Amino acid sequence: MTAMQPHELVELALGLSRADGCVVIADEESTANLRWAANALTTNGVTRGRRLTVIATVAGAEGTASGVVSREAVTPEEVESLVRAAEEAARAAGPAEDAQPLVADQPSSPEFTRPPAQTSIEVFEAFGPALGEAFARAAAQGELLYGFARHELTTSYLGSSTGLRLRHDQPTGMVEINAKTADLSGSAWVGAATRDFADIDVPALHTELTKRLGWGARKVDLPAGRYETLLPPSAVADLLICLNWASGGRDAHEGRTVFSKPGGGTRLGDKLSGLPLTLRSDPHEPGLQAPPFVLAHSSGGDVSVFDNGEPIAATEWIREGVLHELITSRHAAGLTGLPVRPAIDNLVLETADQESAPTLDEMIARTERGLLLTCLWYIREVDPATLLLTGLTRDGVYLVENGEVVGAVNNFRFNESPVDLLGRITEAGRTERCLPREWSDYFTRTAMPPVRVADFNMSSVSQAS
User: Fold this and answer.
1) Which of 26, 401, 436, 442 lies in disulfide reach of 6, CB 3.0 to 4.6 Å?
2) Do 208 and 222 belong to one domain?
3) 42 located within any domain
4) By C-alpha distance, which of 298, 295, 317 is closest to 308?
């Protein structure tokens, strides 16, 4: 590590640039983590990291080229070689398809020259003792707790030759806990996302785990088939993150995705759900705050390094069941005629009337017969034209009869498209912050409701535990 502050590295790199245009991003990262197994803490630690990315643009007779080079732990003495490498990459490249004028005329962040925010092991000051108490309770109840907690804090500094000086502090926290019976025959999972661990209720999480282990005391074997199924918020998040990732405007316009209209164009304006469901993103969403401007370390799809610093506004991707917006860079918007809509690092699904929306427990109580899932994993895309996904259930599939959970069912492989699923949701509950299990390494800022699907496709029985 160097004593030079990240914003000073940005200024140094910009001052050394000989390219026609230059964007520099400095990311300062710190991470604190805890891991535990069989009711005992196993490891804990803190890490620090720094990455400097230089984007050089060079104008030519055939168009503007770009070169991008990133390096870790860059010292002041190494900055010039990084800048030259980016410039050489730009000169060696052909014209960039996504070339646009670099973003300019944006107000500077007031704290651009402040030191980066950092996390530390102190973030677990209240969580750690509560976890220790949970270990003691679990041991007394014949349960074993496994899991991990992680908190990351990334401060990103973005500067450009057009005068941008922007900064964003991004905290990301999560906890996952597995509870197992003493003979390891039963397993349950809970997870939660957080910005600072102040809102993590360990006793409530442990109580939920104990309840689910109790549900699993009775085993029920069921065949593959279509079942009325209650999906909790975590499972809904994993499916709709896939939908969001597939909602690129250019790919849809060019006929390559589920959002392409037969015969040409996109499905914007199509009704996807009979319920008034709204899927939206907002960089200023309370508790789910995300970068309010584009931070692109590379180009691809509907993301462009030329858009760095472009402001991001709240966007409704689906408005009351109707497809309303698709993700586009400035380049993709120019090709398709769609408005510029950058990707946003959070996702919320909700109904208009949250006050009267039921909780998951209330939805269980009015289920005559159906399945209750815990979470999904190993999700993979099968067919981009329909966004058909396949994956597995995990850590608890339960049978509900006459409003009560009566036992644990074997796991299944499922085959479903989240787009098709939207049209088959018969009930949506109250939206709450949740942790997507499959995609938690990539996308953690979500708020989803539990939903009821009349005929969720459990395509085969799985032996996975």
Assistant:
1) 26
2) no
3) yes
4) 295
Predicted local confidence at residue 1, as pLDDT: 42
Name every residue whose Cβ is closer than 8 Å to that of residue 309 and which is 6 or more positions away in sequence. 23, 102, 103, 106, 158, 160, 164, 166, 293, 294
161: tokens are 């030759």
Task: Check whether 10 has a pLDDT greater than 60.
Answer: yes
Q: 78 and 19, same structural domain?
A: yes
Quick one: average pLDDT of 340-351?
98
Query: Do 141 and 233 reside in the same domain of the chain?
Result: no
- Strands (E) in 82-224, as ranges, are 143-160, 165-181, 187-194, 219-220
- Final residue of a structural domain among 169, 187, 214: 214
Q: Which amino acid is at 264?
A: G
Cα(203)–Cα(211) distance, integer angstroms: 12
Same domain flag for 140 and 254: no
Residue 124: which CATH number? 3.30.2290.10
Classify the C-alpha dihedral 452-457-462-464 as positive or negative: negative
Strand-pair partners of 373: 397
Token reading at 17: 């640039």
28 backbone dihedrals φ, ψ, rounded to 5°: -105, 120
Q: What is the pTM of this model?
A: 0.96
Quickly count helices (H) and strands (E) in the chain.
9, 20
Q: Look up the domain containing 60 and give its range.
A: 6-214
What the block records as the tokens of 108 is 């500077």
Q: Are residues 113 and 229 in the same domain?
A: no
CA torsion, points 423, 427, 429, 431, in degrees to nearest 10?
A: 10
Distance, CA of 295 to CA of 342 (rounded, Å): 10
Same domain, 23 and 166: yes
pLDDT of residue 353: 86
Q: Does residue 240 share a domain with residue 153?
A: no
What's the pLDDT tens digit per position in 19-57? 999 999 999 999 999 999 999 999 999 999 999 999 999
Return the residue matching tokens 């049209």: 423
191, 214, 237 — which closes off a domain? 214
Place of tokens 């309010």: 292
Does residue 393 lie in a domain region? yes
Q: Whole-angstrom Cα distance, residue 465 to residue 459?
A: 17
Q: Same domain, yes or no, for 232 and 172?
A: no
End-to-end CA distance of the chain: 43
Residue 1 lies in a domain: no
- Give the CA radius of gyration of the chain: 24
